[in-house]
Amino acid sequence: MNFLEEGLAKLNFSKNQIERIAPLMENYAGEILLFNGAYNLVNASSRDEIFVRHILDSLSAAQEICRVAEKIFAESAQSQSANAKNESQKITIADIGSGGGLPGIPLAAAFPQFNFVLVERMSKRCAFLENVRALLGLENVRIENSELEKIPHESFEIATFRAFRPLEKKILSNLLAVLKKGGALAAYKAKRKNIVEEMRLANCSSYNVIALDVPFLTDESAEECERNLVLIEK
């Protein structure tokens, strides 16, 4: 079974998209396997495990993030003059605490129409990300060796993160600060019951939880396989 290509099909990517994305993700998985021991990038030991638990997991929210990005772009275009529209930049999506590039690298490969900034504080992981960006030819990706707190305010239309620490009140404030007005935070999370408590402790009452389905993530209990995307608009 080809977990990657079949998983992409299950996530509603078109045949043309799969033919473009799959080779890139094959190469990406190879780089993770090559450097994982030195950089501690992911908790996985095989190519198929990387495909399912990391790449397909990252892409399980791709269609929803694309929908949000297109909505923000349309609303921004409506509020701009004709000249400003001609000069407008692409939507920029930040992957905060990118680590080994998840979800930023798979999302950037899937959506070349958007710009991506991978924010990572560890220099050695940034070196890995620069290598991957060059190897895959991802011209829509930029690597930012920085901590979240040092990113200028209102830098991005969308900020996303995966396998990040809990959304405490201060962290949420810092994440929202780097978003432009009208932007959105897209947080990859697991169990819905934990999300509710996390949002309560962060004093966040306005958010949406969208259930995600990760293809082939069936080797654990149903509860352990639960994945959700939390959307918070600014």
Can you describe this structure?
Helix 1 (3-10) packs parallel to helix 3 and helix 2 packs antiparallel against helix 7. It is built from nine helices and seven strands; from the N terminus they run H-H-H-H-H-E-H-E-H-E-E-H-E-H-E-E. Strands 3-2-1-4-5-7-6 form a seven-stranded mixed sheet. Helices cover 47% and strands 19% of the residues. By secondary structure, it is of the alpha/beta class.
Short description:
With 234 residues, this protein is α/β, with parallel strands linked by helices. The chain has nine helices and seven strands.
Cα shape: globular
**Poorly predicted regions:** 82-88
Order of helix and strand elements from N to C terminus: HHHHHEHEHEEHEHEE
Mean pLDDT: 92
Q: Span between N and C termini?
A: 42 Å
Q: What proportion of the residues form beta strands (DSSP E)? A: 15-25%
Q: Taking Cα atoms only, what radius of gyration do you get, to the nearest Å?
A: 17 Å
Largest sheet: 7 strands, mixed
Helix content: 40-55%
Strand order of the largest sheet: 3-2-1-4-5-7-6
Secondary structure tally: strands = 7
Number of helices: 9
Helix and strand content put the structural class at alpha/beta
